[in-house]
Specification:
By secondary structure, the protein is α+β, with helices and mostly antiparallel strands. The chain has helices at residues 7-34, 62-68, 94-106, 121-134, 140-159, and strands at 49-59, 76-80, 83-91, 112-118. It folds into two domains: 1-37; 49-159, Alpha-Beta Plaits. Helix 4 (121-134) runs antiparallel to helix 5.
């Protein structure tokens, strides 16, 4: 014969377990979502136009990154997890990316080329204009100015949403 007198006790145990699980889930969700509040990083998607970013390295802290970039006129960065990534040039043209890499090599600064996809017509137009100037020039002053303007446009259009 079945006994039904312990059903209430068992239901209380399950109810407590479910309630505690929901509370823990809520707090973990809140914690993870607040980690990304105000996040400013590279807007990357698998759609859009391909861009070549010149990476100056990966750093474990913002202070380390800033100390490393002290000799650079301009750079942008993104935080991914616990690491910071510094970028010192942006272009859509592979030849221009190589030209920028050689420019930095002449200054004894190691960079590598990384590709990202960004969807922004305004940014695309700005970088296309800069690429058209850079493709026809080998002047160090022009290269420096194009690099700085590209990074400034990235910060203005992509990071700040202007």
């Amino acid at each position: 014969m079945l006994r039904y007198d312990n059903i209430g006790d068992n239901m209380k145990k399950y109810f407590k377990a479910i309630f505690v699980s929901l509370i823990i889930g809520f707090f973990l969700s809140y914690f993870f979502l607040t980690q990304y509040k105000g996040f400013k990083g590279i807007t990357v998607s698998n759609e859009g136009d391909e861009y070549y970013f010149l990476s100056n390295g990966q750093y474990s802290s913002k202070e380390e990154m800033e100390k490393s970039g002290v000799n650079l006129e301009n750079y942008v960065y993104r935080k991914d997890g616990i690491n910071y990534y510094m970028y010192v040039g942006i272009t859509k043209n592979k030849d221009n990316a190589e030209k920028m890499k050689n420019y930095y090599a002449s200054k004894n600064i190691d960079v590598e080329i990384k590709d990202f996809y960004i969807s922004s017509n305004k940014f695309k137009d700005a970088i296309d204009n800069l690429d058209n100037i850079l493709i026809n020039s080998n002047d160090e002053v022009v290269i420096t100015e194009i690099i700085n303007q590209g990074l400034n446009k990235y910060e203005e259009i992509i990071l700040n949403g202007s």
